[in-house]
Amino acid sequence: MENSNRLLFLTAAACATVMLSGCASMRWPWHKEKVEAPQTEEQAAAEEEAEDADSTPPRVIDPNVARRKIKTPKIDNENWELGAGFGFMTIEDFGTNSAYAAQLNYHVTEDFFFRADLGQSTAGRTSFETLGGNIELLTGDERRFTYYSVSLGYNFLPGEVFLGRKLAMNSGFYLLGGIGNVKFAGDDHLALNFGAGYRVLPTDWLAIHLGVQDRVFDSDLLGETKVTNNLETLLSATVFF
Amino acid sequence: MEPSITTTRSRRLRRTSVALALFACFLSVTSLAKQTEEEKAAKAAAAQEKLLQVFVSEPYLELSTGPGRGYPVFHVVEREQSVDVLHRRTDWFKVRTEGGVEGWARARDMRRTKLADGSPFIFNLGDRAGYTTHDWELGIGGGDYGGANLIGLFAARSLTDYMKVDFSLSQFLGNASNGWKAEIGLQHVLFPEWRFSPFLTLGTGYVETSPRATIVLPLDRQDQTAYAGVGARFYLTRRFFLRADYRWHTIFTSRDDNEELEEWKIQIACFF
Q: Which of A197, A236, A235, A238 is nearest to A214 (CA)?
């Protein structure tokens, strides 16, 4: 009997200890955070002395280290390529004349790029005009051949060209195809363009292109509607940025 | 003997003047050289400061001579060594090793390098995840605008994954008239994470129509337009997707009637 009483009492005591300590470790809404009173220097010094006197070992690792935030610099993307070129354009029935153009490329992947071309040339005289004497098919303004096109390009055959023993420059061929507009003989024409080019890069930011493109459109200038092929050959320099 | 005196004097004069000029030149050149050296040093320091340094955590990092898979590997950076990232072109990074060797590293390999604090080097890789979340879109294409052929390009800026501001510029070439139009609108992508994702669009624009030379019509016209449309986008591969859309335009003409036009087009686009 006495034994069972003692057991009961001990169990109750153990439960109370466990529960109370558990309660203390929990946060109750009616408990207010203990606000530490600002310490005076003397108090701090006194405490330090007391701590020194205690033989508790100092903490080897301080877990409260502020994590250093590393700011990563922005990486310069150089996917745009802008440049201008000069060359010649063969306008069907109107001879070959000088041409100049501007181009803007955006490199999407190592294989593909978008390209916008804007160019101008001036048509010469047809054989008919030359032989016929005083005949003028087009006025001066109408002879201006202006065009723009948007194309998709595909890089292939990448390689290097070697100039002497020490200098190697990256190079590559590309194919182009797209659509655009040609303004010629006072009228706008929907034109398809396709061609190929060769690119050499003396440095990472500079490229020299030699490109040939055919600009194809329907023309009814000489009476009947026919498909005209207009070949453009350009040497251009572009800069990556 | 007069001439001889003059000659000597003038010669002396000339000599001194030449010497003075040379000295001035030398001074200016040296000062210039000093300046340029200082500038160079400052520039180099600034560049050094800005460059990102990453550490190779795989057994090695290969460097190619050019930004493409066809260019040969010419150098290898060992584990624990660092490289400075100079710039990026498509999926290649131009890097400089500790020894000063510069070459191109593949983005896929750069993904496995670590920053100075040990965290992985994370950047935008052109893949499906990028298709859902990106800043810009750019595309070109063609279609039909009220019976006329249409050539156009567009750029879109993402406000969120779902909402984009869309700018487009196009030219149309018809039998009766040609013209230009520029439009700005809002685009709502319904399910940006889907590979084939529909979208709704609403916007306004400006259209300039001019009659073709062969047909006699009174005047060029400039009108304001508004449009509503539906479309779909389809992820192709890498950074590419196709975008096809149909737009229903109302053109606010100066006449009594507003004109209504249908437009459809298909475009190939990329995101970055």
A: A197
- Give the per-residue pLDDT at A151: 92
C-beta pairs of B240-244 under 8 Å, 24+ apart in sequence: B240/A108, B240/A112, B240/B268, B240/B269, B240/B270, B241/B131, B241/B268, B241/B269, B241/B270, B241/B271, B242/B266, B242/B267, B242/B268, B242/B269, B243/B139, B243/B141, B243/B267, B243/B268, B243/B269
Cα–Cα dist A147/A100, whole Å: 11
How many angstroms separate the CA atoms of A196 and A202, rounded? 20
Nearest CA in chain B to A168: B65
What is the distance in angstroms between the Cα of A97 and the nearest Cα belonging to chain B?
25
Residue A81 is predicted with a pLDDT of 92
Cβ–Cβ gap B71/A160 under 8 Å? yes
**A15-30: per-residue pLDDT in tens?**
555 555 544 455 555 5
Minimal CA–CA distance to B106: which of B130, B131, B123, B129? B123
Say how many CB pairs under 8 Å bridge A and B. 102
The pTM of the full predicted model, rounded to 2 decimals, is 0.70
- Chain A: residue whose CA lies nearest to B95: A75
Q: Which residues contact A204 (CB under 8 A, 6 or more apart)?
A: A78, A240, B94
Interatomic CA distance for residues B70 and A160, integer angstroms: 10
**pLDDT of res. B155:** 94
Put simply, the chain A residues between 138 and 157 with a CB less than 8 A from any chain B CB are 150-152, 155, 157
Between B190 and B17, the more confident residue is B190
Residue position matching structure tokens 């389809």: B234
CB contacts, 8 Å: B85 with chain A: 75
Measured between CA atoms, how close is A105 to chain B, in angstroms? 12
The answer to whether the Cβ–Cβ distance between B92 and A72 falls below 8 Å is no
User: Do B85 and A77 lie within an 8 Å CB cutoff?
Assistant: no
**Mutating which of A67, A76, A110 best tests the B interface, going by the most B Cβ atoms within 10 A?**
A110
Let me know: does A224 contact A182? Beta carbons within 8 Å: no
ipTM over the 0.90 cut-off: no
The CA–CA distances, whole Å, from B242 to A117, B203, B233 equal 22, 21, 6
Q: Which of A110, A201, A240 is facing B91, going by the closest CB pair?
A: A110
Token pair in block for residue B12: 């002396």
Structure tokens at B251: 């053109």
Q: Which helix (H) or strand (E) holds B24?
A: helix B2-50
B47 touches chain A (CB under 8 A): no
Report the alpha-carbon distance of residue A119 to residue A145 in Å, rounded. Answer: 8
Cβ–Cβ < 8 Å for A98, A85: no
